[in-house]
Design a protein that fits this description.
about 0% strand, mainly alpha
Length: about 140
């Protein structure tokens, strides 16, 4: 049997590719971080696309869903304020979806009474030309 054995991706490499796609790292940069243990060199774009197709497709979506999940946990007080700010920033850069018109918030028991909107207060960082009123 001639030729070298085909590349075999590892679970840790799969997680790495998925995380990097979620951070909007390009495929060319991702492939440089995945080293073929048989050659000691980075894999090619063709190898990346062949072996990591699923991770390349869902990495960004999983990152967005994770950020939304953190905001949901923040409503229960399980996430710190800096983490909320970081997640909001991430979502604004990566596909923030406003609540569509006509959509109604419900209590966990299914009714719409006594529903208070969730308001996130972000600190004034001095980047605006004029500070907001009341600061």
């Amino acid at each position: 049997m001639a030729g070298r054995k085909p590349y075999q991706p590892t679970d840790s490499d799969r997680r790495l590719v998925e995380a990097l796609v979620g951070c909007k790292i390009t495929q060319d940069e991702i492939r440089l971080l995945i080293v073929n243990p048989k050659t000691g060199k980075p894999i090619s774009l063709q190898t990346l696309n062949r072996h990591y197709r699923q991770e390349l497709r869902v990495g960004r979506v999983k990152a967005i869903v994770g950020a939304y999940g953190n905001l949901r946990r923040a409503m229960n007080g399980k996430v710190s304020a800096p983490m909320v700010t970081a997640n909001i920033f991430f979502l604004k850069c990566n596909g923030w979806r406003e609540t569509p018109q006509g959509m109604q918030m419900l209590n966990p028991d299914g009714n719409d009474q006594d529903v208070a909107p969730v308001v996130f207060y972000l600190p004034y960082n001095g980047r605006d030309r004029e500070p907001p009123k009341g600061v």
